[in-house]
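User: Okay, second chain of the day. Same drill as before: sequence in, structure tokens out.
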Amino acid sequence: MKCATLFGALCIYSFQALVLASPTPSPLDGYDLFIPSWEVQVTPGSEPLILNGTVEEVHTELLRLNPNWDEDFADTEDETLVERNFDLEKRTDFADSKYNCFGRWGRCNSITIRQGITYLRKLSGNPRAAAGPSKCARVSCSYNSAIYWCNDSKSKKTLNSFGSIADGAKYIDTKCHLGEGISRYTAGQVFHKTNWNVIVQEDKC
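Assistant: Same drill. Structure tokens below.
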């Protein structure tokens, strides 16, 4: 699913892990996938509605339900400003984290991944995952460039914010890249010390 516009100011109240009911071909061999669910408002002041999928898929569905959604929930679309504002907050520390570049992870476009990072930075709420290990959700995917979040712990996992996942994706984009400009590519996996990891790779979307 391709994202029509920058994801704007999606009002997120919670993030829940729904394990797939039946086996499906996994783009991550050795990992069990679950579908992220989001509580969202279709119009200002409306009752929350649960939608499933990546942030881009949820945004597309919101526009179908309310073509004026972007205007109703208008927010800055300046990615630089989003990054600057987030710099004022505490970032998740990936210093000295183990990471792998490319290899089994197919390369994808850095510009698209950075847009996915911006989407995640704008979300409120807490990512939650079922007990692992190797439980993963595709939280962002656009133009065949995906961000995954995986729980490596044997217990349920809750992160402080979606910005934590964005931090992992940005770490990969910083450490693992080829080329420059519109021809800059990235892919890899980084492991946080609290038993979760982020994967950036090519995927069908």
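The first strand starts at residue 15 and ends at 19.

User: Thanks, on to the next one.
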